[in-house]
Amino acid sequence: MTPRTTSTVAGRTRGATKIFGQRDAVVRALDDVSVEFRAGEFTAIMGPSGSGKSTLMHCIAGLDDLTSGTAEIDGIDLSGLKDKDLTELRRGKIGFIFQSFNLVPTLTAEENIRLPLLLGNEDGDEAWIQRVIDTVNLRNRLTHRPSELSGGQQQRVAIGRALASRPHIIFADEPTGNLDSTTGTEILKFMRRAVDELGQTIVMVTHDPVAASYADRIIFLADGKVAGEMVEPDPGKVLDRMKTLGD
Amino acid sequence: MFRIALKNILGHKARLVLTSLAVILGTAFLAGTSVFSATLDRTFDNLFQDVFKNIDGYVRSAEVVEGDFGLQERTRIPIEYVDKVRAVPGVADVSPDIQAFARIIAKDGKPLGSEGNGPPTFGSVAEEFKGALWTIVDGAFPKGANQVALDEASAQNGGYVVGDTVKVVAQAGSRDFTLVGIASYGDVRSPGGATFALFDADTAAEFLGKPGFIDAILVVGDGTRSDTELAGDIDAIFDPTARVETLTGAEITKETQDDIGQALSFFDLLLNTFSAIALGVGSFVIYNVFSISAAQRQRENALLRAIGASRKQISRSMLIESVVVGVVGSLAGLIGGVGISVGLTGLLEALGIDTPNSGLVVPSSTVVTTLVVGVLVTVASAFLPARRAGRVPPLAAMRATALETTGPGRVRTRSGLGLIGVGLAVVGAVIAGASNSWLGVGILGVFAGTIVLGPVLARPMALFLGRPAAAMRGVTGTMARQNAARNPKRTARTASPVLIGVALVTAVSALATSIKGQINELFTDQFKGDYAISTTILGFGGLSPSLADDINTIDGVSSATGIGTILVKIGDKGRNLTVISPSTFDANYDIGLVGIDAKTLDSNGILLSEKWSRNNDKPVGSTVTVTLADGTERTLTVRGLYTKDDAAVRGWRGVGSRVVSREMFAGANLQSFDFGIYVSVSEGADRAKVRAALQAVLDDQGQGKLLSKTEYIDEQAGEVNQLLGLIYGLLSLSVIIAVVGIIITLLLSVFERQREIGLLRAVGMTKSQVRTTVRWESVITSLLGAVTGIILGIGLGWTIVFALRDQGLTSFQLPAGATVLIMVMSFVVGVAAAVYPGWRATRVDVLDALVIT
Ligand SMILES: Nc1ncnc2c1ncn2[C@@H]1O[C@H](COP(=O)(O)OP(=O)(O)OP(=O)(O)O)[C@@H](O)[C@H]1O
Ligand SMILES: [Mg+2]
Question: Residue A77: inside a domain, yes or no?
Fold first, then answer.
C-alpha cells in the first residue's frame, strides 16, 4: 500500500500522456498533463471537442491507464494497481456521474444511491446517507425505478450515489449535457451545495460556460495539453476564453 | 432487402454462431441416429448376405409360435430329414442347423457374454459342409459328444486354446467339452457380439434341444437348377402334414435381414422419439434466439422503417436470415450427426459388439431430411419474431431503450389457462372412465397451456425463486433476481426447454419408482423362501431346468422350486405360460391360490389369475387349448384361480396370468428354461453352510446368481434401473440443448446489458460480483424450469401410472429421491451454464460500454 499523504490534494496527474492507436494512426489524447484537484474544491475541465477532457478524467479515475506519467487519487499511485484494487478504489474513494445511463434499471432509486456501499457490503454512515437523500431531494422517490423517474431526477439519483459513500473525489462527465437548462441548473446547484455544505471534492467536465461558472476553478485543455486556468469564473469570461481556444 | 439480410448476418457473426448452434444441436441428433441406424442396418445386411452367400435352400418347419418383443419359437424337425433332402436331385450338400441357448463359461469361471440385455449366447452346429457358415481357423470341426468349437472372439475372451476343457451350460444342464476348433463366421470373429458354442449335429440336438431334432437344414445346390426349382423339388418330397417349408437362399437371407431390422426397429423408434424431443426442445431455443435478436435490433429496424422500408421488407429480411442460419446450422448438424454416429458405433464396440466394418453409411435421405427439417424448423421458429420485427413502429427508433419490456397480455393468460383447463378436464374425464387414448390430448393441453402461460408466470416465479439469492447475496443477488424477472417472455422461453426435459425425466422417474415399489411389495408378499437363484437372461435362455433338482439334493435345503416359462399359442396369439414344479411350489411361493393346493396341479391342468379367468371367460372347470412350439396341442382344464396377478410387472418376473406344471409338456420338443429358483432352508440347518453349498453348485455349473431374499427383491426392482438408465441417457440430450439455450440467452443478455455492466464496474463492482450476478440469474432461470417441470412431471407420471392400472400397476409413488436430485442438478446446471457468459460479462470494457451512445 502506498502511504497516504496528508496533502490537501484530492487527485493529481504528473506528466500524464495518453496515446491511442498504433503507428500511422496515433492520437496523442493527453500530452504531458500535470494537474491538481484540491480537496473541497469544485473544479471544471473545459476545452474543445477532442481536446482530451474525457480521457483525462478516465485516466485519473482509474477507468483507463496512462501511456506514461502518473495519476494519483488521495496519494495513491494508480499505475501500480491491479484490476481488483482499482475496482475497490473506485468503489470507496471515487464517485461518478455520467452524462446519461447512470443508473441500474433493475434497482430502485434508493438501491442505486446505496449501490457502491451495497457492492462493498458496507452499511456506510446512515445519517450521512439520509442527509444526502435530503440534499438531492429524493425522499419521496426512493422506491421508484429509473424508468419511472425524469431525466433530472435520474441525474439527482446519480449525484446521490456519487455522494453516498463519501468518496474522496467525484468525477462528472458532462452531467447536464442531456438536460434542459432549467433542470441542468438545478443539478449544478445540487453539486455546488455538495461542495459547500458537505465539503465534497468535485471534478466536472463540461462544454457549457454557464455550467463551468458554478465551479471554483476551471482548467482549460487544448490538443491534449493544459491551456490555462481560471479562478472564480463567470460565463462571459469563460466564453471569451473558450473562443481563443478555438472551439 | 436480401443485401441487408446478408449484411445483418455477416455483421453479427457472434449472433450467427449462437443461432446456428441451436440449429446444430437440434439436427445433429436427428442426423446422428439416422446415420447410425443406416450403418447398423447395412452392417447386418452385409453380414447375412455373406453368411448365406453359398446357401441355395433352407428347409424348416412351417409351424411357429410368435411371442412378444419379436420372440418366436419354431417347431423343430427330425434329423432324419437331412438324408431325405440330401437325396433330392440337384442337391450337392446339406447340413443340419440348430440355434439355441448355450452359455460358454470362461476359464476364470465367469460366463461369457453380457448378462441381460447384451447380444445372445448361442449353441449351434458346425460341420464339414460346402456352404459352411463357419470356417475353422484353428484345429478341426467338432465330432462326437465330447467336442466343441468356439467362435474366435469367445475363445479369445474366454482365454481358451485348442485342447482346453470348456464348460458350457445349456437346456440339458452344465457340461465339460474338449475344445477342438476355433471358427470364424463369414469374415467376422463373432457375429454381432453373440457367443457361439459349436457341436456336431447329434450332440447339438441332444445337448441344446431334444435328441434327434434340429431347427433347419441348409442346402447347397449343384447348379443344375434354379434355387426356386430346387426349393419346389425339396418341398415335394414331404407330405403336407409334415408342415415343412423350403426357402431359397435369397429368401432366408432377406428374412434374416428383416428379422434383424425388426429387432432393431424398437431401438430405432426409441432413438427417433428422443431425437424428435431433442428437435422440439431445440426449436424453442431457436425461437428464443430469434426473438431476442429481433428485440435487440428493434431500433435498427425502426430506423429502416422510418427511412421507408416496408413491414414486409423488414420481416422478409429476417426470414432470409433464418433460411441462411437454417442451412448453415443443418449442414453443421449433419456433420456433427456423423460424429455422433461414429461415437455410437464406438460405444457398441466398447460393449464388445464386433460388427463387420462396412464403413459409415450416410444415406441421401438423411442428408435431405436433416436439411429440410433443420431449415423448416428454423424458418418456422423465426416466423413470429420476424413478423413482430416488421410491426415495429418507426417511432421506436427515437426511444432511448427499446427492449422486450412489454408485459404478457391478457389474451395470453386466458388462452394459457384455457388450454390447461381443457387439458385437465380431459384427464378428469379419463379418470372418470373415458378411454385412455384421450390422455395424450389432456397431457398435451396441460403442457401447451403451461408453456403459453410461461411469460405470465415467469416474473412472479423468478422473483419468488430469487428471494434466497437476494437474501444471501445482497445487491448482486437482488440484481440477478431482477434480471431474471425483467424480460418475462425471454426467461420463460429460456426455461421452457428445461421444463420439458425435467418434466419427462420426472415422469419417467415417477413411473419407475411406482413400478419398483410395486415389485418390492409383490415379491415381499409372494416369495416365502430364504434364497433365490436368479439369472438376468430374459427371453432367450435362462437356467437349466435340471438345476433345481441339483439344488434339492443339497443337505440343509428343505425345498427348492424352479419357475420358468414357455411360449405357446392360445388361439392365434403367442402367450407365455409360467411353468412350476407343483410338489415344491407352495413351500416357497405364494400366489394367493383360492381353495386349492399347487401340489394338486396335474399335467392336464392350468391355474389362472382371477382377472384373466374373468376377462377370458374361463371359470374353474372350463378348458383352455394351447398349441406347443412343437406343433402339438394340449387341452388343459382350469383347476383353480389365484389372486396375485401381477401382469404389469411381468417383465420383471412375476408369475403372470397362467400357470402350468412342468409335467404338462414333458417329452415335448421345445425349449424351456427357468428364470428363478426359490430355496427354503431346513429348520435348524446352518445357513452359512447351506449358502456355501448352494454357491458351490452354481460355481460348478457356471450358471445362476445366489441371492438372499432381500437381495433378490432389491435386484428385481433394480432391473427397472437399467431401462431407466437408457431413457435418462437419451433425455440428457434434451437437457444439454436446454443448457445451451440458457448459455445463448445469457450471452445475448450480457451483450445487451454491456452499458449496465460497464456502469456497475465503474462504480465499483468487482469481476467476481459480475460473475455472481450472471450465475444467479442463470440458476434462477434453470430452477424456474425445473420447478415447473417437476410439477408437470409428477402430474404426467401420475397420469401414466393411472393409465396402466389395468396392467396391474396400482399404486403411484412420488419419486422423492429423483426430485431432489433434479433440483440439485438444475442448480448445478444453472451454475455451469453461467460460466462462459459470466466470463464474457467480466470482459466488458468499462470505457467502451460507457462511451456507446
Ligand atoms: N478509445 C480511443 N481510441 C482512439 N482514439 C481515442 C479513443 N478515445 C479517445 N480518442 C481520441 O482521443 C482524443 C481525445 O478524446 P476525448 O474523448 O478525451 O475528448 P473530449 O475532450 O472528451 O471530447 P468531447 O468534448 O467531444 O467529449 C480524441 O481525438 C479522440 O478521438
Ligand atoms: Mg468527452
Answer: no
Cell reading at B26: 437440434
Q: How far apart are CA A210 and CA A180, in angstroms?
A: 13
Quick one: CA torsion of B745, B747, B751, B755, rounded to 10 degrees?
100
Q: What is the value of ipTM here, to two decimals?
A: 0.86
Q: How many domains does chain A fold into?
A: 1
A8 occurs within a structural domain: no
- Highest mean pLDDT of the ranges B129-133, B504-508, B811-815: B504-508
Shortest CA gap B769–chain A (Å) = 8
Contact B568, B575 (CB under 8 A): yes
A68 within a domain of the structure (yes/no): no
Is any Cβ of chain A less than 8 angstroms from the Cβ of B463? no
Nearest ligand to residue A98 Cα:
2
CA of A173 to the centre of ligand 2 (A): 7
Q: Does residue A10 belong to any structural domain of this protein?
A: no
Please answer whether residues A209 and A35 qualify as being in contact, where contact means their C-beta atoms are separated by less than 8 angstroms.
no
> How many angstroms separate the Cα of B656 from the Cα of each of B524, B591, B642, B660, B666?
16, 10, 10, 11, 21
Contact yes or no for A44/A1 (Cβ under 8 A): no
Distance CA B523, CA B516 (A): 11
3-state DSSP of B224-244: CCCHHHHHHHHHHHCCHHHCE
Q: Identify which of A18, A27, A63, A208 to mutate to test ligand 1's pocket (most ligand atoms within 8 A of the CB).
A: A27
Three-state SS for B128-194 is CCCCCCEEEEEECCCCCCCEEEEEHHHHHHHCCCCCCEEEEEECCEEEEEEEEEEEEECCECCHHHC
Radius of gyration of chain A (CA): 18
Alpha carbon distance B180, B197 (integer Å): 11
Question: CATH number, domain at A94?
Answer: 3.40.50.300
In degrees to the nearest 10, what's the CA dihedral of B88, B89, B93, B95?
-10
Q: Can you give the pTM of this predicted structure?
A: 0.78
Asked if the Cβ–Cβ distance from A107 to B479 is below 8 Å, we say yes
Q: What is the mean pLDDT of chain B?
A: 83
- Let me know: does B515 contact B812? Beta carbons within 8 Å: no
Contact list, B762 vs chain A (CB under 8 Å):
63, 90, 96, 98
Of A98, A105, A115, the CB nearest to B475: A115
- The C-alpha atoms of residue B20 and residue B14 are separated, in whole angstroms, by 10
Question: A41: which 3 cell numbers?
Answer: 474544491
The pLDDT of residue B651 is: 47
| pLDDT band, very low/low/confident/very high, at B249 (cuts 50, 70, 90) | confident
Q: Which atom of ligand 1 is nearest to the CA of A56?
A: 18
Q: Which residues of A touch B478 (CB under 8 A)?
A: 106-107, 111
Contact B789, B503 (CB under 8 A): yes
Inter-chain contact B483–A106, Cβ cutoff 8 Å? yes
Q: How many CB pairs under 8 A join A and B?
A: 72
Beta-carbon neighbour count of residue B563 at 10 Å? 25
- With beta carbons less than 8 A apart as the criterion, state whether B618 and B608 touch: yes
B295-309 pLDDT, tens per residue? Answer: 777 777 777 777 777
Interface of B with A in 370-409 (CB under 8 A): 401
Task: Tell me the backbone φ, ψ of residue B563, rounded to 5 degrees.
Answer: -125, 130
Distance of CA B841 to the CA centre of its chain: 41
Give the span between the Cα atoms of A91 and B765, in whole angstroms.
Answer: 7
**CA–CA dist B302, B394 (Å, integer):** 4
Q: Which residues are registered as beta bridge partners of A76?
A: A73
Could you tell me which residues are beta bridge partners of residue B573? Answer: B570
Contact between B601 and B639 (Cβ < 8 Å)? yes
Domain hosting A164: range is 40-62+82-244
DSSP letter, residue B682:
P
B486 and chain A in contact, CB less than 8 A:
yes
Q: Which pLDDT score is estimated for B775?
A: 94
Longest Cα separation, chain B: 100
